[in-house]
Design brief:
The chain is α+β, with helices and mostly antiparallel strands. It has helices at 2-14, 26-42, 46-50, 55-60, 64-74, 76-79, and strands at 81-92, 95-104, 109-118, 124-133.
Length: 140
């Protein structure tokens, strides 16, 4: 056991330190936005969830109640995820596409691709979510 601890200590010293996440990292920022919106859904906080919607989404759903109802009906895995994890991402200009792997509360697996756009004030807002049913892999 002492050998393992010593080896880990040496490896830790040899690895370069991880740099802090910067405020300019769009992927990290977008992941925080998505996680905060999912937390708002889990807390049934319509106002907080609606605050992360882009102006285009707000035009389609002009109040938090209609937005919240749409999410409950059409995006149940996002509204009530069992678990979720971030997958791949792609940054193009002021848009980030972020894959979110979701285990629905019903046990079904989903992939949600979020389109998140940078606003003129520098904040990021969710502009849409495309849901796809995931095919389960082999049993482990």
């Amino acid at each position: 056991m002492k050998i393992v601890r010593a080896a880990l200590a040496v490896c830790t010293l040899l690895l370069p330190p991880a740099g802090p996440a910067t405020a300019d990292d769009p992927v990290l920022t977008v992941q925080k936005v998505i996680a905060a919106q999912i937390e708002a859904f889990l807390a049934d906080d319509a106002a907080a969830a609606y605050a992360f919607a882009s102006p285009a989404i707000r035009q389609k759903f002009p109040d938090e109640t209609s937005f919240f109802d749409m999410v409950k009906r059409g995006y149940a895995p996002v509204y009530r995820p069992g678990n979720f994890a971030f997958g791949r991402s792609r940054v193009a200009d002021d848009t980030v596409l972020q894959e979110v792997l979701i285990s629905g509360s019903d046990g079904k697996d989903w992939t949600a691709v979020y389109q998140v756009v940078r606003q003129p004030d520098g904040s990021y807002r969710i502009n849409g979510v495309h849901m796809m049913r995931s095919v389960a892999g082999p049993d482990i």
